[in-house]
Structure formats: structure tokens, C-alpha cells
Write a structure and sequence with these properties.
Strand content: 15-25%
Strand order of the largest sheet: 1-19-18-14-13-2
CATH topology of the largest domain: inorganic pyrophosphatase (n-terminal core)
Number of strands: 19
Helix content: 40-55%
Distance between the termini: 20 Å
Number of domains: 3
CATH architecture of the largest domain: Alpha-Beta Complex
């Protein structure tokens, strides 16, 4: 969707001598060199740092990766599995948790173990390893419990299982705050890991742990990178990390060449050509569908789609329908927030009719649009369940840590966290949280754009620039700027004429939903656009998509 913005909101970079020097040193295009400079590369940058952007080496990075304490011992426990071993995998209901669950199950199955998995219900149970499930596991017995994407702070539940004589391996990536689970088999890079490891999602932690300890043949592990790619994009971990980028790239290769049957059916129904799959397809189409299962139904449905389960077409149809419902519910909440919510609560918003399952995605959007913290909360019986989102510079976990004595459960990351609180304590929590969020210092950094004429960009240059991807969190897709000359032709496209082509003479911009905005161009100073590769009927071309119209 095209929006207006002011030029003073933008930091427009024009390539100069530094970019020219980088281009000469690397024998690359000026376009790629300019993008490298915008990522901090200079003519004095070391070869190794440049390589980490242009051609990162996965194996060398994995060789020196430090996942933190207990890495080796946890692997020894896992190696004890054999044919007949009884394993329970406990995960989480988002795509990282779903992918991590599927990965752990696949690893245990490879060792011919008998595997069951459990993912809590978002509404009825919420995040984490719950004591009732832990009690059930302890009673029914098994040989190993593998807890993924949670468990770090579930001290009592882990203790209960271990005291029954069952070993527990925890593979997590959440910040370690408060009372930690006492387990000498907990692998969480947030506890003693290096900077690169701390940036991994849960599925990434499991995969790297398996690689380092050779728990599966590496040719098989490479085929499981599709799960890591899904989780990495879904969990919005940093793609400035060379390791995360190369893991996603490896996963994209798997998804393009040999997608799982369920994902293949999903892509077909979503109109995605596997060979042309890109990170945007994952983020905007596939991941929302997989997430919808845990948000509005049972996350097990998404896990089954990742395996070769029965009735896959019906399961895929179900998950697509759930995602449609998720979008509808999200739109209603957004409309309600825009229309109704005002003082005294600007940051902590609640409504008894909101669906808990969609709050996190809605909160993320509100936080992004307002560049301000926001907590959305809904009631589930006698419990209030909420999600907290922070703009850059905020600390969601820090806020919840302060409120911890009043909360039932809490945890997450610096910019995204979840919590629950009993209804009788909610008003106190709401007042305190509102006060804390109102004092959050928000960064108002300008958006970095590259000055580049559309006529000077072609498919070859963009393909070269894509080596700096995959693009996403902390490594945004390049946004380009050029001034408005007044000499353009607007061509309506689509059934209702809402979309347009902007004929610039030597090139063309696509403006989705921009027809009405372009009727009056007084005060227009320039355009912000992004490139994307489009494949239609086996023909690949470069498209330039208008994102913003720049005014004074």
C-alpha cells in the first residue's frame, strides 16, 4: 500500500567515492557497492567482514559458534536414544515453536525412537511448560522429554519431571530472567553463548546444536533447513547475522527444489511457484497461514502439514480458512483501536471480546505504525492474557520483570513478550504498565534510502545485490529514492482501476492502491520504491514497486 511521507523523515544517500572504491575492490556493480556502504562497509573493511555479507561460509561459522553451557552434555543425552526409546517433545504454538517441534521430532525419529509431541493451547494454557502437562508426563513415564522454544524459566515443571527420573533437554533462545529451570541439559545461547548464537531462533539453536554434535548426518540436516528458514523469518530474529542469512538461504533452496508435501500443496493454493519462492512469500503468505493454526485453533494442525500426514489437502484448506478468519479479526481490532481508545490508557489496551490468538500480530502492527510501545490484553476466564510490543530501543522483558511479582507468567524478547495475570490483579498491573510504557524513550531515526534512478537498475544488478540477502529484520530490503520530475504518465490497471502503472519513459513503477493518491500531485517531491523479481509463465523480470510518495 502506497503512503505519503515527508522528506525530512528520510536520509537519502548518494553513492560517491567510497562506493566507487568498494566496487573497484570487489569488482562488483556500483549498486551493490552502495548497498554495502550503507551497511557499514568501507574501503578499509577487512576481507572477512566483506565476505560475511557477500558470501558467508556456513560451515566455518558453525565451527566457531558458541551455543553456551551444556551443549555437549545435552548431545550425549540425546545420543542415548535408540530403537524403542520413548520420547516426548514439548513445544510452542508460534511458527518458531512449531518448526522447532517438527525438527526435534524428526531428529528423534531418525534414531528410531517412538515420539509424541505436545503443544499447549494458546487460549486455555498459554506459553510455557505447564505443571499439569509435566505431572501427566511424570506419571505416564518416558525416556526423554525435549522442550523446545520454551522451558528456560519453567523451573517447577522441569523439576517435577526430573524428580520422576526422566531426563529433560531444553533447547531455547528466550532471554533468561528470574528463576531458571535447573537442568544441566539446557542449551540456551542467552546463557553463556556468543553474539551470533544469541541471535538464533529456537529452531536455529536446535539445528546448529545438531550440526555441531553430529547428531544427524549433515546431508540430512541440510534437508531440514526448510524448518529453520520458516522459523527464522517468522520469529523476526536478526538477518544482519551472517549465520541467520545463510541458514535462511539454505532453507529457501530446499523449499524451492523439494518442498514438503504439505507445504507444496499450500504454495499451490496460495499461487506461489516453488522455484520462485522468496522471503516475502514466506513472511506474507506461508507463515501467516501456519501461525493461524496456533492463534485460532490447535497448533498441531500446522505440525501435521509439515509432516506427510493424512488428508493433507483438507488440512491445508483448513489452515487457509483460519488465516482468512485471523485477518478479519485483526482488522476489527485495528478499527476498534483507531476509533475508540483514548485517555487515560494510550498504551495498554483491552477488550473482553478480543480474540487472544490475534493480539500479537495486531500489537506488532500498531507498534510499527505508531512507533510506540503497546500492550493488547484480553480475558480468558479468570485470567488476562496479553502481548507487549516495543519499538527499537525498548525493553519489553525489562517491563515485565519489574511487574513479575504481580504476574502469573511472563517471558519473551526485548521487543516482543507475553504475559498473563489474574483478573483481580489486572487493574494494578494495567496502571503500572501504562505508567512505565508512557516513559519509554522511542528512537525516531530517519529511514535510510539510496538515491537511484529506475532507468539505471536492471535484473542483473538486482540479482547481484540480492547476495546481501535474504532481507528482513536488521537487514531491510533496499528502498530507493528518485525525484519527481512532473513528466509521468499514469495508466490504471486492474478491474477497478485502483492500481496504476507510472510510466517514467525509460522505466515503469507499479503503484498498488495508488490511483486516488496520484490524482493530485501538487507538492510531490519524489518517489520511494523497491525492486522485486517477478516470474510469470516462466518469464522472470524485474518490477519496481512504489511504496511512498514524498512531500516537502
Amino acid at each position: 500500500m502506497v503512503v505519503f511521507c515527508s522528506k525530512n523523515e528520510l536520509n537519502i544517500y548518494r553513492p560517491g567515492q567510497t562506493a566507487a572504491g568498494i566496487a573497484a575492490r570487489l569488482d562488483c556493480s556500483l549498486f551493490q557497492a552502495a548497498l554495502l556502504e550503507m551497511r557499514g562497509i568501507t574501503t578499509d573493511t577487512s576481507d572477512s567482514e566483506i565476505k560475511s555479507w557477500v558470501s558467508p561460509d556456513m560451515e566455518s561459522m558453525l565451527d566457531c559458534l558458541d551455543l553456551g553451557e551444556n551443549n555437549t552434555f545435552a548431545a550425549e543425552v540425546f545420543r542415548s536414544l535408540n530403537e524403542g526409546s520413548d520420547v516426548v517433545v514439548y513445544g510452542d504454538y508460534d511458527v518458531d515453536g512449531i518448526s522447532a517441534t517438527a525438527l526435534a521430532v524428526e531428529m528423534a525419529l531418525y534414531r528410531r525412537a517412538s515420539v509424541r509431541y505436545f503443544i499447549p493451547h494458546r487460549f486455555n494454557q498459554g506459553y510455557g511448560l505447564h505443571s499439569d502437562v509435566a505431572t501427566s508426563i511424570a506419571k505416564r513415564k518416558c525416556d526423554l522429554v525435549i522442550v523446545v522454544d520454551c522451558g528456560t524459566q519453567d523451573a517447577e515443571s522441569v523439576k517435577l519431571i526430573r524428580e520422576s527420573g526422566i531426563p529433560v533437554v531444553i533447547l531455547d533462545h528466550h532471554l533468561a530472567e528470574g528463576d531458571l529451570a535447573l537442568s544441566d541439559t539446557m542449551v540456551n545461547p542467552q546463557i553463556g553463548g556468543d553474539v551470533t548464537a544469541k541471535r538464533l531462533c529456537a529452531a536455529g539453536v536446535i539445528w546448529c546444536w545438531a550440526w555441531q554434535n553430529e547428531l544427524l548426518p549433515r546431508e540430512i540436516l541440510r534437508k531440514l533447513l526448510d524448518l529453520v528458514a520458516l522459523a527464522t523469518i517468522a520469529d523476526c530474529v536478526s538477518l544482519a547475522s551472517p549465520l541467520n542469512r545463510v541458514l535462511v538461504q539454505g532453507g529457501l533452496d530446499v523449499l524451492r527444489k523439494a518442498p514438503r508435501p504439505g507445504l507444496s500443496i499450500l504454495m499451490e493454493k496460495l499461487g506461489i511457484i516453488p522455484s520462485a519462492l522468496d522471503p516475502e512469500d514466506l513472511a506474507m503468505k506461508i507463515i501467516p497461514c501456519l501461525n493461524a493454526a496456533g492463534r485460532l485453533y490447535f497448533a498441531d494442525l500446522a505440525v501435521k502439514i509439515l509432516f506427510n500426514a493424512e488428508d493433507l489437502p483438507e488440512k491445508v484448506d483448513k489452515i487457509i480458512e483460519l488465516n482468512k478468519k485471523r485477518r478479519e479479526l485483526s482488522s476489527r481490532i485495528l478499527e476498534q483501536v483507531d476509533a475508540e481508545h483514548a485517555d487515560p490508557y494510550q498504551y495498554v489496551l483491552t477488550d473482553k471480546d478480543w480474540s487472544v490468538g490475534v493480539l500479537s500480530s495486531v500489537a506488532s502492527r500498531i507498534c510499527s505504525e505508531r512507533n510506540a510501545p503497546v500492550a493488547l490484553v484480553a480475558s480468558v476466564g479468570e485470567i488476562m492474557r496479553g502481548t507487549l510490543r516495543m519499538p527499537a530501543g525498548g525493553d519489553a522483558v525489562g517491563v515485565l520483570k519489574t511487574l513479575a511479582p504481580l504476574l502469573n507468567t511472563w517471558g519473551g524478547h526485548r521487543l516482543a513478550a507475553g504475559f498473563s495475570v489474574k483478573s483481580d490483579k489486572w487493574q494494578e498491573v494495567r496502571d503500572e504498565m501504562e505508567k512505565m510504557l508512557s516513559g519509554v524513550s522511542v528512537s525516531n531515526d530517519k529511514e535510510d534510502l539510496l538515491y537511484w534512478l529506475p532507468s539505471e537498475l536492471d535484473l542483473k544488478s538486482w540479482t547481484e545485490a540480492e547476495k546481501l540477502g535474504p532481507f528482513g529484520m536488521d537487514n531491510p530490503c533496499p528502498r530507493l529514492y528518485f525525484p519527481y520530475s512532473g513528466n509521468v504518465k499514469i495508466i490504471p490497471i486492474g478491474k477497478n482501476g485502483r492500481h496504476v502503472k507510472i510510466d517514467l519513459g525509460e522505466s515503469m513503477l507499479l503503484g498498488f492502491g495508488a490511483a486516488d493518491m496520484l490524482k493530485e500531485r501538487e507538492g510531490l517531491m519524489g518517489w520511494v520504491y523497491r525492486p522485486r523479481v517477478d516470474t510469470w509463465r516462466n518469464v522472470t523480470s524485474l518490477q519496481l514497486v512504489l511504496e511512498k510518495m514524498v512531500t516537502a
